[in-house]
């Protein structure tokens, strides 16, 4: 009989591309993973992996087994969710992956509320920009608080369920003596010193797309994806930044914010979970806490500070 843990290791190695990378994500030694995969190879009687430069690749038999492994592992999770739904109680652990720009105004309030409502639930939060939906499909995390810019197509795998949380507009951010609160036409930024995220990022692409619609190509004086650095440069009067609303502390001193009136740039914040037929009470509780935090945050305007 095939071992579920070994099938999960095969799935992880296939996704990570190497035994070393898979071992790191599974918190195991590379030797332990190799040993389990050797046992899986012995179980099926055929090679499942072959060297491919510095990585490994699946053999034809490995690809066939992996396809079945996906279905088997999904069925196992479905069974666990079905039993949990009958119990109707929130579980003991869950892992959330969230964007750094969402921590202060959404994630922290949501986790605090979860701790009060479900004290038995131990939450782990991974704050990262990297490959969140892949981690979800691999089972490394249970809920993702992710983002998608509105000009980009939906790319979530069919195995992932998406719950929209918030349309989060980018605001213009300047020093306290900047625009004020009046709406600003995006084309006005053509003459500004700008701090922009790299053009290779989704946010950078969204800004470029909007600026082209407004009739100009922006020139970045400063390039960084670090929102705290963007805000610092704006506060110092060195540049105008375009920052998502939820990434701005409403009481932050020394800055002013203004909405874009003609070509709004929106990112959709969403909660993602693995798709199952039966509702998982634990992930449902996490998503509901995120939704509640968003509703409460929307009632808090970003105010200009002196």
Output the helix-strand order. Answer: HHHEEHEHEHEEEHEHEEEH
Q: Helix coverage percent of residues?
A: 40-55%
Q: Mean of residue pLDDT?
A: 88
**Beta fraction of the residues?**
15-25%
Rg, please? 23 Å
Shape: globular
Structural class: alpha/beta
Counted beta strands? 11
What is the count of helical runs? 9
Low-confidence stretches: 302-306
Sheet having the most strands: 9 strands, mixed
Distance between the termini: 69 Å
Task: Summarize it.
This protein has 306 residues and is α/β, with parallel strands linked by helices. The chain contains 9 helices and 11 strands.
What does this structure look like?
There is one protein chain. It is built from 9 helices and 11 strands. It is an alpha/beta fold and 306 residues long. Strands 3, 4, 5, 6, 7, 8, 9, 10 and 11 form a 9-stranded mixed β-sheet that branches. A hairpin with a 2-residue loop joins strand 1 and strand 2. It is globular. The N and C termini lie far apart (69 Å).
Which helices and strands appear, and what pairs or packs with what?
Blueprint: H1 4-16, H2 19-26, H3 30-44, E1 49-52, E2 55-58, H4 60-87, E3 93-98, H5 103-117, E4 122-127, H6 132-138, E5 143-149, E6 160-175, E7 194-196, H7 202-213, E8 220-223, H8 227-235, E9 240-244, E10 255-258, E11 266-274, H9 281-298
Parallel strand pairs: 3-4, 3-5, 7-8, 7-9
Antiparallel strand pairs: 1-2, 5-11, 6-9, 6-10, 6-11
Helix pairs in contact: 1-2, 1-3, 1-4, 2-3, 5-9
